[in-house]
Amino acid sequence: MGASSSKPADSSPVAQSSHRATSSDEKRAMVDDIVETMSTLTLRQPKSANGSLSFDSIDSWESEVSSQPKLQLARTILNHSNIREALMSREAKIADAHVFNTELDFKTDPITNQKSSGRCWLFATTNVLRYNVMKKLNLDDFQLSQSYLFFWDKLNKANYYLEQAIQLADKPLDDRVVYELSSGLISDGGQWDMVVNILENYGVVPQALYPESLHSSLSSPLNSLLKTKLREHALVLRDLSSSLRASSLLSEDAALRALRTKKEELMKEVYTVMSAVLGVPPKPDEKLVWDYYDKDGKAGTWEGTAREFYKTFAVDKYSPSDSFSLINDPRNEYGKLYTVDKLGNIWGGRPVLYVNTQIENLKAAVVKMIKAGQPVFFGCDVGQFSDKTAGIMDTALYEYETTFDISLGLSKADRLRTNESSMTHAMVISGVHLDPSGKAIRYKVENSWGEDAGNKGYFVMTDAWFNEFVYQVVIPKALAPKELVKVYESGDKHVLPLWDPMGSLA
User: Fold this and answer.
1) Is 447 a catalytic residue?
2) How many CB atoms lie within 10 A of CB 335?
3) Which among 4, 194, 311, 433 has most CB atoms closer than 10 A?
């Protein structure tokens, strides 16, 4: 395992074929091919001189397609069939067995369900943390409160957005950064460093002490109302900033104090809505009492604060605050530290940081953590080549190319560049299946979509799918390669723009 600082090597077939053309003869052949292609393009005339779609083109396409029996059969079947169900590969379903020879030695229950919300990152986090809680307290059925983290995260995101409104008040509303901030101001999603911010500041509590509400599980109505108010609040602060800075009587510090006083007044409205809809959460230093049964039926009682519960039970050998994100982003240089401009939740908190490295390092991290008894938080693009019912994530799952005589040639880097893919979902890896050489060939994934999804809530992810659609693995520094820890601790970060796909919130 190592972190190379050279340019990334793309793992796609297209990229591999281009990298192999290194000899002078191969390069000369490539040039000849390009010349031949260009000459063909020059001689061939388009059917539409002005670029519009012409019926001559359609007639030509139809003539070619209708002459092929396989494509005619596809038309017969697919016009009344679900394309994914009809084209799901039987071979892939057979090969992708939900069997794993290396798993965590402790199984948690129940399978969680984020329902109609974007809180996967909070569910993945609490699903990781509850391993320690359940082991220490001898529990067989337990959940941490995802809603507790959700409340404090969303309240802080509202404050973060209004602070940005103050800082950027001199920028026009159509400035790209201002516009981007106002677009996704308080989404349900987040990143690892953002949840560490919440855990370190607010702790965590058992779900019984702050249970789900209707709109923690169905978040869009709440989000819609809060976004409306916060955009209005941002305009109020921008107008006030303009008035204050036009006055020569106030210093910059005095103007900032006045703006923050007004912001706190506006934030009261956000808190009023949230506390009514989600319930008033415990304060992090509020004394709490939790009664529970262990797996032997013995009653127990715990007393303490949310911060104390976090430090006592949720943190074991490896603390969330001592863990960091490895990412695989083939667009950017490996062996470097990256962050995303203006991405965060707690103002002045821990920044979002990624160490970019080869995909093999992410896989090695997963195997090492599973062998060490540690569940793995990871981020991926779950909607690509996956089936919720079967619980399969496999690049060979659908027979699109064979059916339509097409080639899907985008590399991982291409997908990121063209907005085809990004981190959309966070889950937990709890097992791997290793071949005789020790290489992982598939992964056991604990999702947060309830027991009806996949194999009683669990998915199987192939190694090929990992290559193409896994972007992030969180690893404790104690288990990470030293050279990658060194990159992380260097603080020498490269800043990606706010709209970069690495800024997507799982």
Assistant:
1) yes
2) 19
3) 194
As a whole number of angstroms, the distance between CA 48 and CA 25 comes to: 39
The H or E element that residue 112 is part of is: none
The 10s digit of each residue's pLDDT in 106-121 is 999 999 999 999 999 9
30: which 2 tokens? 């490539």
CB 299 within 8 A of CB 293: yes
Q: Are residues 352 and 270 in the same domain?
A: no
The domain that holds 322 is classified in CATH as 3.90.70.10
Q: Which domain holds residue 197?
A: 141-293
Over residues 383-435, the pLDDT tens digits come to 999 999 999 999 999 999 999 999 999 999 999 999 999 999 999 999 999 99
What are the φ and ψ backbone dihedral angles of 415, each rounded to 5 degrees?
-65, -40
Please write the tens of the pLDDT for every residue from 457-496: 999 999 999 999 999 999 999 999 999 999 999 999 999 9
Please tell me which residue in 215, 233, 425, 433 is annotated as part of the active site. 425
Residue 396 shares a structural domain with residue 437: yes
List 113, 120, 345, 361, catalytic entry: 120
In terms of domains, do 243 and 390 share one? no
Say yes or no: 281 and 344 in one domain: no
Catalytic, 328? Answer no
Same domain, 184 and 146: yes
Q: How many domains does the chain fold into?
A: 2
Alpha helices in 285-418 (DSSP H): 306-309, 359-371, 400-404, 412-417
Q: 3-state DSSP call for residue 211?
A: coil
**And the tokens for 218?**
């169905």
**Cβ contact 228:333 at 8 Å:** no
Chain centroid offset of residue 298 CA: 39
